[in-house]
Each structure stands twice: as structure tokens, then as C-alpha cells.
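Render this sequence as a predicted structure.
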Amino acid sequence: MRKYPPGILCAAFVALSLAQHAAAESWTVPAVDELADDTWGRAVRLGRELMVATPNLIGPEVTDPAHRFSGNNLSCQNCHLHAGTGKFALPFVGVFGDFPQYRAREGQIRSLEDRINGCMNRSMNGRELPIDGPEMQAMVAYIKFLSIGIPIGAKTPGRGTAAVPLLERAADPTRGAAVYARVCTTCHGADGAGKRRGVVGDAKGYEFPPLWGPDSFNDGAGMARIITMVGFVHSNMPAGTTWETPALTIEEAWDVAAFVDSQPRPHMKDLDRDYPNRLQKPVDAIYGPYPDPFGQEQHRFGPFQPIKDAVGRLRGSAMNQSAAPADLSEPTKQ
């Protein structure tokens, strides 16, 4: 395992933090409530409502079975905080101009609608929204509105989650259990089942979402990958935390993410079809097949730098082979 001089992790984090502070200075969010009460304004506001009150509108407990698109009672803003407007809280600001884009998970060029339906299948553990339906059109309208003024393809300050350095060791679910018990149980419960706003069957969803179990995201979701969860947790948890004033240390964030992601959750079928180019597969994908010699346990908890190094070498070798000139010599006659 690669070794670093004492203090290098702290120095790396300070450098990342300074860069993130500088990048987020220009963060602005357009005002949805100032839109006119016309077709466009109503579509944008419906899109915001779908992000905030997902289980009330398209959850598994709504009255009309035709509108039960989500398979769980999470809301979109459980991951995309503040209706997708929070800095380093998986915001939608600037997302519209990124699509269409190449998606390594599918190995194809995909639309924003495809990306939304990926969340419906994975994070919401449900079924796809009709592309031409009012729910999809409203979600796209809302994301487009939040992206006003941002050039197509431009990097948006505050997007995603704030970067967190990799650990030299594997993240430890046992240590994470202690962090969870101390910091997380008040909101999410000792059993990870969250706290409902009402009762089962009322379609009101959760005040605090479940982090595992049958009503949580499935194992194909981005949040089921530890690097994604670590960045989210360190920047935003517990509730009220911001990326500017994290409540957890870097190691605590890694360990509690390992604990949460080691818990049972719904399984998504055919995950082996993800990332048809295995060299583009994230190093923290919890399911194979993998292009490298490391096992599932290390892909799940790390350490990740050896995996990154190995995949980097494999990519370099693949590029060298593809760039090699073809052999145009005469074939040997038999």
C-alpha cells in the first residue's frame, strides 16, 4: 500500500477545501417563486414539487396505481438537498447543459430524461417515467430553470459533493457503527429505518429517510458506492451541516459510510451489464465484474489508490494497443 508522510492527508484536504471555497463563491440559484402563473411557471413549480414531495405525487402509496412510479417512499431531495439547490449537496444547478452526454454506466450517449429514469430505477427503486408525461416534462423544466445563465458544458461551482481525500486504509464498518450510533440514530433510527411524517400507507413519506432496508435506495444507486456517500456525508451530515463547516472528520465520514453501505437493501437485477467498458467502471462499484485483480471487498471499502493505479495502467496499456500501427506486411504463404 502506498505510504504518505505524516500530515499529507490533512494537507490534501486543506488544498481541496480552499479550491472548493473559491469555486463556490459565484453560486446563484434562480427564484422559482418569481415565475409567472403561466404554463412554464406552473411546469417549473410542479418539477420542484416532484423533487420535494415525491412520495405524495408518484410514490408507491398514492391512490392511483397508474401514478406509482417510485418503488420506495424517498423523495428526490433526500439526496439532492434543498430541492436540488444546495452547494455540494448533489444540486441540479447547471445540470441541464450537460446533456446529452456519454454515460459510462450504459456505454451510450444518454439524455437528461434517461438520467432521471436511471434515478427512478435505482435510487427510487421503481419504474421509469413516461418521457412525454407531465411528471418528466416538469422535472426537466425545473432542472432547466435552475441552469439558466450557465453555459452549455461549463463547469458549475458547487456541483456534486465536495471532494474528500482517499484513505490509505480500508474504511471500517465497525468503527462506522460507533459513529452512526453517536451521530445518526436521532434522525435515522438505530435500525436505519428513518422517521415517517405520518404512518405507513398515507403517502406522506419521511421526515428523515431510511438509509437501508426495503424502503431505501437499491444497490445499483450511486449512493450505494462509498466514495459518493462519503462526499455527501462529509459535506452535509448530520442535518444542518454544510461543506464549509463539516461536523465529521474525514475518517469518521469514511467509516460511517462503510457502515451504512454494508447494510441490506433492495437488489437491482442485471447489474453485471453496467459499465460495458470495464475500464470505465468506478473503483468503488460494489458489484463485478471488474477489470482489475482486486476483490469485491476492496472495491467496496478500499483502500482505493491501489485499484486506481492498477486501472490506470490497464487503461494506458489499452490505449497503447489501440494506437499501435496495423501490421501491413504480406501474410506468409503456405
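Summary. The two ends are 52 Å apart (CA to CA). Residues 305-323 form the longest helix (19 residues).
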